[in-house]
Every structure is written in structure tokens, then in C-alpha cells.
Amino acid sequence: MANKDLVQRDLKVVWHPFTQMKTARPPIPIVKGKGALVFDEDGKAYIDAIASWWLNTHGHGHPYIAEKIYQQALAIEHIIFADFTHHPAVELVERLLEKINGNQARAFFSDNGSTSIEVALKMCFQHWHNLDQPKTKIIAFENAYHGDTFGAMSVGARSAFSAPFAPFLFDVEFIEPPLPGNEQLAIDQMKKALESDDVAGFIYEPLIQGAGGMLMHDPKVLDTLIGLCKAKNVLCIADEVMVGFGRTGKFFGSHWMENQADIMCFSKGLTGGAMALAITTCTDQVFQAFYSSDKWKTLFHGHSFTGNPIACAAALASMDLFDRPETATSLLRIEKQHLEFKEKIKDHPLVTNLRHQGVILAFELQNEGDNSYFSSIRDEIWHFFIDRQIILRPLGNTIYINPPYCITETELNQVYQVIEDLLKHLQLR
Ligand SMILES: Cc1ncc(COP(=O)(O)O)c(C=O)c1O
User: Fold this and answer.
1) Which atom of ligand 1 is nearest to the CA of 147?
2) How far is CA 121 from CA 200, 265, 310, 395, 412, in A?
3) Of 92, 150, 224, 374, which sits 20 to 30 A from 345 (CA to CA)?
């Protein structure tokens, strides 16, 4: 009853993301989370098989993260981050740089994936501007998604999401991503794009294009593409927002490649999914283009909540949990379960392009007709899963699992079972 009341109140005043408010089903009110489960007011449990938009790593309502957040809120909840600093921010940057274990030397805070991309793009363009070699072009992949702010939309594939804003997006050189069968085409297109001397940067999602449909790349070819950019002095921007913090089976997607990015973007799993926080890191070489007694060379960017101490404390707590051996064990166990499930459904007539990388398993549902985000098949799949208390939000006809790492063996088997039930249901009609 109370649930119903909350839904009615929500429907009167709230505007939900990526939601056509007129046609969408009413939202499901959630009051509690534990591990991979979230509960409504009546105690009904849902398995969060997509980690609440790929954020959650160690589980919902994690007592260790909650305690650290609480302690930090009592100590200092927020302090302006220009002219001031604090322990959680500095310690977090030190630990993040240690985890990256490569060429990154400086970290700039913001609040979410999109803003981490805006910062990266500004760093990239202004780096060249400060060196008196202004360059205007970014190379990005077709199917890319880097967020919803204007810079992030500009470097993302043009789609229904960005169509109303097309006149306001800057021009980008889109090349084919190195999907299976497309490797040489991607290399050829990159070489062609690099013939211009006006290329400032190349942005990519290391190994998996998330919102583009969980499209997986061969690390060797991506490495070659990054290498081609490096040879031309083009700044490489790794968008680790989705793939970072274990999703691909290594701590960062970039760890699959030899060639390392000049700029890296982190969010989502940075705080274990508990608080809004993002970081953009860069090499010392990029930083040096800004480090000057000339104030015009300053990176003039910042947000009210830059470096929020509570969010940093959550991120530090998440780092502690990553250092516990059980997290690595869970990652391996999820991958093993995925492999077994793949074997089980690989010959199913409705399953195409079955693939997995780390904790992510994806396939396309064989379906004649519209397979877009707006298709009826997408809605049908979503409703089938949610009616069975499994949160598996498809991308068009792409069904994927990307769970919190604490999901139990039994819970993951329940997710597989519901996918098999869907396949049976669709086959029978
Ligand atoms: C690869 C990638 N980059 C950037 C973003 C944008 O992040 P946010 O939604 O936090 O703005 C996303 C979001 O899904 C993403 O998957």
C-alpha cells in the first residue's frame, strides 16, 4: 500500500532518466539492498544482474563502505577543493595511481562518468592550445558511448539519444571499432584519419563498448591502434568508466594492452558504486603543458562537489575490499560460471554472437525486425525479466549480464535460468 502511494507521488513530480514518462511502466520502489539483492517495501527481492548501471562492485548496503561513509561524514563532509585538500582525496589518488601502475601521474576530480570525459577532452584540447599547437580533431569509434554532456555526446556515436542536439556537437572523425572481422578495416581507417595533422586525441572504451551493445574487441588490435596514435603524438584517452575496476577480468581494461593511454577516465566502480565520484588522470607530460607561471594555462574546470571527502572515503573503502582475496576469487568464479553457461546455450537457435569478457556475458537475441532501444522486443525482454525479479535491462536485442562481484553462485544460476526460460518462451510462440 505504502509502495503504491510512493509510486503515485513519484509519477506526479519525478522525471526519470532515459525514460519516456508517458509509456513506461511505473517505477519499482526500492527500500533496501544487500549483496546482489535489492528489496521493495514488501520485502520482494530482485537480483541486480547489471550492478545498477554497471556501478556496484561489492554489493548493495555494504556495511564496511557504509561505516567509512558515516565516519567521514562526521569528520568533514565537504570542503572546497581549490586552495584546500584532505586525507581521503590524496590517499585515493595515491592508491589509484598505484593500481594503474603505469604512466599516469596526476588526478583531477569530478562527479560522474560524463564529467570525467569533459575533463579529459578539455585536458586534451588545452594541452595542444597551451603548447601553441592548437588541434581540433578527435578520433572516436562508431558505436561509442561516453556520456550525455555535450562534449561526451560529441565523441559518442550519433544516435536517437543525441539527435536533437546534433547542431551543437563538434565534429569527430569516427572510425570502425576492431570488432571480430573488422580488424584490418579499423587499422586502415585509423591510418587514414591520422594523415591529418589536426588530430588532438583518440578516445576509446578499452576492450568493451558498453552502451553500444557490450561489443568486445581484440586487445591486440586495439593496442595496434593506440600504438599508431602514439607514433603520431596523438593523445590517447582511455574511458575506463564502465570497464574499470575488474569488469574485464583485469583491474583496468587498459591493462590488456601494452600501449598505455595519456589520459584515463574513471567513475562508476570507483566508489564500489556507493557514491557519485569520478577521476580523470593524465601523464606528467600532459600535466606539464598546464604547469606554468602563465595563469592563462590553468585548467579552468571544477564542480562544487569536486573531490568530495565522503565520496573519496567510499572509494577508499572500495579499494580495501578490492584488496581482499575473496574479491579476486569471486571474479574468477563468475567467469567460470559464464563459461559453463556459454557452453550450455551456444547452439540455441535464438542465441547469436555469444561472447564474454571478465564478468560480462552478452549475446544478441535472434529476432527479425526492429532491434533498437525503442523496439517492442526490447520492452518484452525487459518485462519478462523484471516480472521474474531479475534486473537485466537489455540494450535493444542485446541481453547481457554485468553483476556485482558478490553475486552468489546460486543467484547467478537463477539469472541464467531466467534467460533460458525467456529463450524457451520465445521459441514456443
Ligand atoms: C564508457 C562510459 N563512459 C561514460 C559514461 C557516462 O557516465 P555517467 O552516466 O556517470 O555520466 C558511461 C555510462 O554508462 C559509460 O559507459
Assistant:
1) 6
2) 9, 10, 27, 27, 38
3) 374
| Distance in Å, CA 347 to ligand 1 centroid | 33
Query: Which residue segments constitute the domains of the chain, with CATH numbers given?
Result: 2-62+326-428 (3.90.1150.10), 65-322 (3.40.640.10)
Residue 23 CB coordination number (10 Å) = 8
Pocket test for ligand 1, best of 52, 111, 117, 145 (most atoms within 8 A of CB): 145
pLDDT of residue 415: 98
**How high is the mean pLDDT of the chain?**
96
Extract the runs of DSSP E, i.e. beta strands, from 126-269.
137-141, 173-175, 199-204, 208-209, 215-216, 235-239, 263-266
Total residue length of the chain: 429
Taking the mean position of all CA atoms in its chain, how far away is CA 269?
8
Report the residue among 153, 208, 268 best suited for mutation to probe ligand 1: largest number of ligand atoms under 8 A from its CB: 268
pLDDT of residue 369: 81
Residue tagged 598546464 (cell numbers): 290
Task: Please indicate whether residue 267, judged by its CB atom, sits closer than 6 Å to ligand 1.
Answer: yes
CA of 116 to the centre of ligand 1 (A): 9
With residue 327 as reference, give the H or E element that holds it.
helix 325-345
How far does the centroid of ligand 1 lie from the alpha carbon of residue 55, in Å? 10
Does the beta carbon of 211 lie inside 6 Å of ligand 1?
Answer: yes
Do 88 and 79 meet the contact criterion of CB atoms below 8 Å apart? no
Output the CA–CA distances (angstroms, integers) from residue 146 to 200, 203, 320, in the order listed: 17, 9, 28
| Neighbouring-strand partners of residue 357 | 360
pLDDT for 3 equals: 67
State pLDDT tens for residues 47-73: 999 999 999 999 999 999 999 999 999
Whether 278 lines ligand 1, by a CB cut-off of 6 Å, is no
